[in-house]
Amino acid sequence: MNRETRVLEVVVEAVDTMLDDYDLIDFLQRLCERCVELLDVSAVGVMLVDHSDTLQLIAASDEHTRLLELFALQHDEGPCVECHRTGHTWLNVDLNTPAATVGFPAFAAAAREAGFATTHALPMSLRQQVIGALNLFHRNTRTLTPADVRLAQALADVATIAILQQRTIDRHAVERQQLEAALNSRITIEQAKGVLAERWQTDPDTAFTALRRHARSNRIKLSELAAQITSGAFDTETMDRT
């Protein structure tokens, strides 16, 4: 299957998801996976602002990227942070070049330690409202082609529309409630990952994959399953670990 056909399938998948009630966390997690697949990048992260306009990590393609993004937030530096702050795109940032990483040396060092050599950040915005950033990482020194940049921005735009779509007349109230609920759900999901990883003596990525698989196969929202696990209401022995 060529990339053009696959891109069309991914767009249709996103639109179909948005037409029904959907789990925002799972939607954005799937966005990360699709970006890795279509853009041939090593890892992806999504950051969104909460009700107080504070940038928060909401999805990441793997545990290393999640920790790196949290580092960026804690130190308030990095292309992703600057992208949200200014609304400007950052492309082909060579993490091994001091001149390219002026302003965020701590983030660059942490990214290199995590195994990344190049990063990109694209704004998630609608008109003049910037609600977050889509962050792409390569493990080698690479540049995005113009076609890749257009596709990455299109995927970021689709996600932005999904987040900001109107479900009531008061769009702003819905946006705040949905994002706040998603951020709270993220905390519960991280706790559930920790519970599974500890019980199974495995890594967080494996635990998260099992968590998502069980939620999908049983048509349960990821956040609901995570809440049941953390509260002890769900028997984790019934889950498939592989």
Brief summary:
With 242 residues, the chain is of the alpha+beta class.
What does this structure look like?
This protein has 242 residues and is of the alpha+beta class. It is 56% helix and 15% strand. The chain is built from 9 helices and 5 strands; from the N terminus they run H-H-E-E-H-H-E-H-E-E-H-H-H-H. A 5-stranded antiparallel sheet has the order 2-1-5-4-3, with helices on both faces. Helix 1 (3-18) packs parallel to helix 6 and helix 7 (171-200) crosses helix 9 (222-231). The longest helix is centred in the last third of the chain and has 30 residues, at 171-200. The two termini are 28 Å apart.
Largest beta-sheet details? 5 strands, antiparallel
**Uncertain regions: pLDDT < 50 for 5+ in a row?**
166-170
Helix content: 55-70%
**What percent strand?**
15-25%
Q: How do the strands line up in the largest sheet?
A: 2-1-5-4-3
The helix-and-strand class reads: alpha+beta
Ends apart, CA distance between termini: 28 Å
Give the SSE string. Answer: HHEEHHEHEEHHHH
Radius of gyration: 18 Å
- The outline comes out as globular
Supply the number of helical segments.
Answer: 9
- Average pLDDT score: 87
Based on DSSP secondary structure assignment, what is the total number of beta strands?
A: 5
Protein name: Transcriptional regulator
InterPro entries: ANTAR, CheY-like_superfamily, GAF, GAF-like_dom_sf, GAF_ANTAR, WH-like_DNA-bd_sf
Pfam family, one: GAF_2
Domain ANTAR: 169-230
